[in-house]
C-alpha cells in the first residue's frame, strides 16, 4: 500500500465530477487500499478518490473510535437513494481543506446504494456520523466541498486563504 499526496484547495480537480467505476478489479482494490492507507496516515475518517487526484466514484470511510478496532468501509459508485427529513449538524473538516472546520447541516439519515469490494450491489442505511461522512464524501464525487454548505462570505474567506497559501508555496 502507498500513501498518496492529498489534493488541497484551491486545486480545480476538487471540482471535477468523478466517473463511475466500470468494474471492480485488482486496480480498483489496490486504489482502495492506497486510499485507506492515505486516510489513516492523514489522519481522517473518509476519503474520496478525487482527493488523491483520481476522478473515479470510489470512497473509503472508517468512523470507528480511536479505542476501537479499525472498521474500514469501501463504497464504489455510491448513490444516496433516500434521506431523512430530520436534520443534524456536525462540525465537519476535510483532508483537502486542512485545519478548517465548520458546522454543516445535513439530513440525519441516508440510504446509500453502492458496490462493495467483491463487486456486489449493496444498500446501507446510515445515521449519525456515518451518514454525515457518506454525504460529505459523495459530495466530493460530485465536485462539491463541505464549504459549499456554509455562508458565501465564510466560503469566500476560506478559498481566499487557501489560494494565498498555494501562491506562497508555488
From TrEMBL:
EC numbers, comma separated: 3.5.1.88
InterPro entries: Peptide_deformylase (IPR023635), Peptide_deformylase_sf (IPR036821)
Pfam families: Pep_deformylase
Swiss-Prot/TrEMBL GO biological process terms: translation
Gene Ontology MF annotations: metal ion binding; peptide deformylase activity
Binding sites annotated in the UniProt record for Fe cation: 94, 136, 140
Source taxon at top rank: Bacteria
Cofactor binding note of this UniProt entry: Binds 1 Fe(2+) ion.
Keywords: Hydrolase, Iron, Metal-binding, Protein biosynthesis
Gene3D superfamilies in alphabetical order: Peptide deformylase
Reaction it catalyzes: N-terminal N-formyl-L-methionyl-[peptide] + H2O = N-terminal L-methionyl-[peptide] + formate
Positions annotated as active site in the UniProt record: 137
Family: Belongs to the polypeptide deformylase family.
Function text: Removes the formyl group from the N-terminal Met of newly synthesized proteins. Requires at least a dipeptide for an efficient rate of reaction. N-terminal L-methionine is a prerequisite for activity but the enzyme has broad specificity at other positions.
Protein name: Peptide deformylase
Species annotation: Pseudorhizobium banfieldiae
